[in-house]
Amino acid sequence: xxxxxxxxxxxxxxxxxxxxxxxxxxxxxxxxxxxxxxxxxxxxxxxxxxxxxxxxxxxxxxxxxxxxxxxxxxxxxxxxxxxxxxxxxxxxxxxxxxxxxxxxxxxxxxxxxxxxxxxxxxxxxxxxxxxxxxxxxxxxxxxxxxxxxxxxxxxxxxxxxxxxxxxxxxxxxxxxxxxxxxxxxxxxxxxxxxxxxxxxxxxxxxxxxxxxxxxxxxxxxxxxxxxxxxxxxxxxxxxxxxxxxxxxxxxxxxxx
Length: 256
Description:
It is a multi-pass membrane protein. It catalyses: Fe(3+)(out) + L-ascorbate(in) = monodehydro-L-ascorbate radical(in) + Fe(2+)(out) + H(+). This protein is mainly α and about 260 residues long. The chain has helices spanning about 5-10, 10-25, 25-50, 60-65, 65-85, 100-130, 135-160, 165-205, 215-240, 250-255. The chain is globular and about 60 Å long.
C-alpha cells in the first residue's frame, strides 16, 4: 500500500484547523449576546414580580419581598458576570491595567451593594410578617454565597488595588481569586434558581393555580430560571476559554 504524499497528509490537519476556526466565536459578538441575555433576565424577573406578584413597595408586605429576586438576579448574577468578564475584553490586554482593575472592582462592588439591598428586602419582609429567617436550603446557600462574595471582594481589593501588596502575594493569590470568582457565580446561579422554585411552591397553591398544573406564571418563571442558568454557564465557559484569556505579563504575547 502506497504511503500518502505530503499534500494528502496535510489534508487532515488543514481540515481540522478549518473546522476549529469555523467553531471559533469572536469575543465581542459573544459578549453582545451575553449582555442581551443578561438584560432579558433582569427584564423577566421584573415583569414576573410586577405582573404576577403585585409590584414593588417598601411597606414590609410581599411587594417589599419582590425587590429581593430583582436585586439578586441583577447584582449577584448579571452585574457580577459582567465584572468577571472585564479582563476578557481584548482592549485590556495592552496598556495600563489600573483602569481595568478599577472597573472590575467597581462592577463587583455595585453587584455587592445590590445584593445587600436584596437581602435587606427579604429580611424586612420576613420580620414584618413574623416569618422565621434562614431556615431553608435556599437561604443557607444564598447567604453563604454573599459571605464568600464579600471575602472575595475584600481580598481582591487588598491584593490587586492597594499599592503596597507585594508581587509574590498577587501571584500566589491570583489563581485562587480566579477559581472563587467562577465558583461564586455558579453558587449565585444556583441560589437564584432555587429561590425562584421556592417562591413558586409557596405562591401557587390554590386549586386553579397549582404549580403542578403549570399555569402561565410557572411557565414564565421556569423559563426565567433556565435563562439565568444559561447565562451563568456561558460566563463560566468564556472565563475558561484559553484564547480569550489575557496573556501573562511575562509571556511573549504580552511583551509583544
